[in-house]
Amino acid sequence: KMNERVVAGKNIEFDEEGFMANYQDWNKDVAEELASEIGITPLTERHWLVIDFCRDDYAEQGDSPTIRRITSQSGVPTKELYKLFPKGPAKKVAYVSGLKKPTGCI
Fold first, then answer.
1. Could you report the per-residue pLDDT of 34-93, keeping only the tens digit for each?
2. CA 46 from chain center: how many Å?
């Protein structure tokens, strides 16, 4: 069941797990608001590097990237990724990036 709410002045649909239903509804203001909801603020240049990588990767692959994929391809090492997006970075970065929950994440 979809759930609609207003984020950064836009009506956005979220799936039953709380992830954005349509990644094209996303923009940087939406990202900032979603990030602050989960306590990630402010978004730094390094956050944006990971977010942009994940969005590009999603557009190519059709799925949210795994932690291994993010760390091996974005240039952000695992330790830093966990600092940027504590406690479940793949899930958190997918959320902030407007992507669906990564496959294999609990």
1. 999 999 999 999 999 999 999 999 999 999 999 999 999 999 999 999 999 999 999 999
2. 13
The radius of gyration computed from the CA coordinates of the chain, to the nearest angstrom, equals 13
Give the residues across from 33 on adjacent strands: none
How many CB atoms neighbour CB 67 within 10 A? 19
> CA dihedral defined by 5, 7, 96, 32, rounded to 10 degrees?
-160
pTM of the model: 0.95
Q: Return the exposure string of 27-63: e unless at least 16 CB atoms fall within 10 Å of the residue's CB, then b.
A: eeebbbbbbeeeebeebeeebeebbebbbebbeeeee
Which residues are marked as active site? 105
Q: In a 3-state reduction of DSSP, which class is residue 71?
A: helix
